[in-house]
Amino acid sequence: MTTSTVPALPDGVTVPALRALALSLATEAGDVIRTLRPERVTVAATKSSDVDPVTAMDRAVEELLVARLTTERPEDAILGEEGDDVPGTSGLTWVVDPIDGTVNYLYGVAAYSVSVAVVAGPPDPAEWTVLAGCVHDVVADRTWSAGLGEGATLDGVPLPPVEPAPLARSLVGTGFGYAASRRAAQARVLTQVLPHVRDIRRLGSAAIDLCLVAQGSYDLYYERGLNPWDMAAGSLIAEEAGARVVGLHGAAPGVTVTVAGRGPALDQLVGLLEAADADAPDGA
């Protein structure tokens, strides 16, 4: 559980109420995805490259989340991965990812999630305060949630303390971008990290990755290129479970590099990534 101070909220708004709404939204969206996934999923469009897909379900679920939020919280802004952004006047922004792990969803690989968070301030990891968040693992039907200063839970049960592991015995999660130049740079960095840790896992859903750090299934996690919707809920869940979520060279976590974990191993991983120039421009 963090000791962060909750910023001033609009009249009548509380962190527990925001957390309950995030939980309701994420689980409802997860039920829709699980129930209505067709036997054969097709690509509706692409984003950053021709291997970065968007499906009809991505769009339908974001429309569902936006519709629910504009009814429940009409004065709040919305930032969504698929671009259904809504301006607001309350100072709060809902940061939503309808399917985090779209490639897994497309191929029927069992790791994709719905991520819903609400932040105070600009929806930028360098400036925001994440107030509440929920990540729903669609295939496993499990749900992590957290509220600022309230701790984190898995299916309503508080996550227990996790003992930090030494770097050499750390299982490390990571991910890769979709542009060829970024993949090449990430592969180079990986060769500098892999000899120093127990092993590497690449799951394909950053939101779930951060929750696995929260519960201790991963010891560490790092990735370049996370957008706000990839990390808003998961970062709060990890921090409320006692992990730290940081960037490199004292910067905030975010699109450049995000690193999560506990104990000295986190700082050692940060050092490895800095020495490998993991945040150097790569053309993507």
Q: How would you summarize what this structure contains?
A:
Helix content is 33%, strand content 24%. It is α+β, with helices and mostly antiparallel strands.
Spell out the key features of this protein:
284 residues, alpha+beta, Fructose-1,6-Bisphosphatase, Chain A, domain 1, D-Maltodextrin-Binding Protein, domain 2, 2 domains, seven-stranded mixed beta sheet
Description:
The chain is of the alpha+beta class. It has two domains: 15-158, Fructose-1,6-Bisphosphatase, Chain A, domain 1, CATH 3.30.540; 167-275, D-Maltodextrin-Binding Protein, domain 2 (3-Layer(aba) Sandwich). The protein contains seven helices and 14 strands. Strand 8 (151-154) and strand 9 form a beta hairpin. Helix 1 runs antiparallel to helix 2 and helix 5 (206-215) runs parallel beside helix 6 (228-240).
